[in-house]
Amino acid sequence: MKDFLIAPSILSADFARLGEEVANVLAAGADVVHFDVMDNHYVPNLTIGPMVCEALRNYGIKAPIDVHLMVKPVDRIVPDFAKAGASIITFHPEASEHVDRTLGLIKDSGCQAGLVFNPATPLHYLDYVMDKLDVILLMSVNPGFGGQSFIPGTLDKLRQVRQRIIDSGRDIRLEIDGGVKVDNIGEIAAAGADMFVAGSAIFGKPDYQAVIDAMRSELAK
Ligand code: DX5
Ligand code: ZN
User: Fold this and answer.
1) What is the CATH superfamily name and number for domain 5-219?
2) Does 36 qualify as catalytic in the annotation?
């Protein structure tokens, strides 16, 4: 497994040319496609669903698709995303009635499963489910929009979660989402993250490869 994964958030891509945008960012060296699903209920924005995920697969996208569900309720959309070609499905525990059940549903559908923590969501949701997690995603902005600034308190939360992963002895990815840029990715990695979502930092620049290369050279320091 790669040490560090770069996962561009297609929230900042040009939706009118989505297939091409995803193909381009993968050709530029991205590892994973981060797919933000917003429902105008759990979060104040509305994006894309399983049909778009399936369309990307039909377009020929082979890379892992990391579906970040910002929806409530969670369970009924999980099988649809699994059928549509999702590789990883993460959800916000406070949006699910039964966190353990939702994790089981994701695993049973053949996907990797993860929990997402908003900046003010406590970590106690991890207490009894570490054995079911493939990914833990910490939000470093409040969910709903791209282009926000990284909340510095997330660094300490990353260190706490990294320690919990070490204590568990399990191979769990620690993903960070929100305000990740070339100039802060190094300190975010030092705090324990190993999977980096970046939307505006990548899609906001004309040369995706230049940004991804710059991120990798920060990570190599
Ligand atoms: C926010 C989304 C993020 C967002 C990140 O709710 O979950 O994935 O697209 O965008 P940037 O990298 O621009 O902060
Ligand atoms: Zn996201």
Assistant:
1) Aldolase class I (3.20.20.70)
2) yes
